[in-house]
Specification:
CATH class of the largest domain: Mainly Beta
Organism: Coniophora puteana (strain RWD-64-598) (Brown rot fungus)
Protein name: WD40 repeat-like protein
Radius of gyration: 18 Å
Strand content: over 45%
CATH topology of the largest domain: Methylamine Dehydrogenase, Chain H
Keywords: Repeat, WD repeat
CATH architecture of the largest domain: 7 Propeller
Number of helices: 0
WD repeats: 8-40, 51-92, 102-136, 185-226, 228-263
Helix content: under 10%
């Protein structure tokens, strides 16, 4: 039996995004009220004052791997990096930030890079310490989701059409796969809304507005096995269990599903 443990009070409007800290002790939430709040995961008590500095509503949040920093992206307002302990702004807005609406942010597994994707179709990589832009590529549509491979050498992105894209990051820029590997994920019949690498980096899972989940070989870009069918509305989120043996998915106006990735 499951017990409701987290019902944050303090925001004046709907919560748009949230993120767990790597150690599981904190939860950060961002809302339409343009504020970020940090909560103790066990007691559900708010930690310190709200983080204020954005002029648009908060769309994306991500903790650094060491849990000491939090990156946020907002509507028409760019990126901010926060000190989790002091709640002070460390950086932002970033120079050369051309985003008009940030939809997704993520730290690389080693904490050296920040990736951001926006409604403007831009996928950017930033140095996580100097906050300088180190790479940028233009998509043909809004970037809806991002996922680094576990070793940080590749990043997958989805955009507001039926394909996902795979890039190398190890050369210090963004390059499509080469040497015969596919850099596109073709198969969905509607927008890819969310995606995630498996913990071992061998698979990428995508969830789409076509209500279907597909799993891909991350090396070849080819679909692995049959599509996962069971939801009746568009897929909003997919996530792997730590051992990669299970996949959980959530859909709009639909129930959660848990899938066995081995069968």
């Amino acid at each position: 039996m499951y017990t409701l443990r987290f019902r944050p009070f303090g925001h004046l409007f709907s919560i748009v995004t949230l993120a767990y800290s790597p150690n599981g002790q904190l939860i950060a939430t961002g809302t339409v009220d343009k504020k970020i709040r940090i909560w103790e995961a066990l007691t559900v008590g708010q930690v310190g004052d709200a983080l204020e500095g954005h002029a648009g509503y908060i769309q994306a949040l991500a903790f650094s791997p060491d849990g000491r920093r939090l990156v946020s992206g907002a509507l028409d307002d760019g990126l901010r990096v926060w000190d989790v302990d002091t709640h002070e702004i460390i950086a932002g807005p970033f120079e050369d930030d051309a985003h008009t609406w940030i939809r997704s942010v993520m730290y690389s597994p080693d904490g050296e890079l920040i990736a951001s994707g926006g409604n403007d179709g831009l996928l950017c990589l930033w140095n996580a310490y100097t906050h300088e832009r180190v790479a940028m590529i233009q998509h043909s549509g809004p970037v809806t989701s991002l996922s680094f491979s576990p070793n940080g050498e590749r990043i997958a992105s989805s955009k507001l059409n039926v394909t996902g894209s795979l890039y190398r990051t190890s050369e210090g820029d963004l390059r499509h796969f080469a040497h015969g590997s596919s850099s596109r994920l073709f198969g969905h019949f509607s927008t890819i809304v969310t995606l995630a690498y498996s913990p071992d980096g061998s698979l990428i899972t995508t969830g789409s507005a076509d209500s279907v989940i597909r799993i891909w070989d991350s090396r070849t870009g080819h679909q692995s096995g049959d599509a996962l069918i069971g939801h009746t509305s568009w897929i909003q989120v997919v996530a792997y269990s730590p051992d990669g043996g299970r996949l959980v998915s959530g859909a709009h106006n639909d129930r959660l599903r848990v899938w066995d990735t081995k069968t």
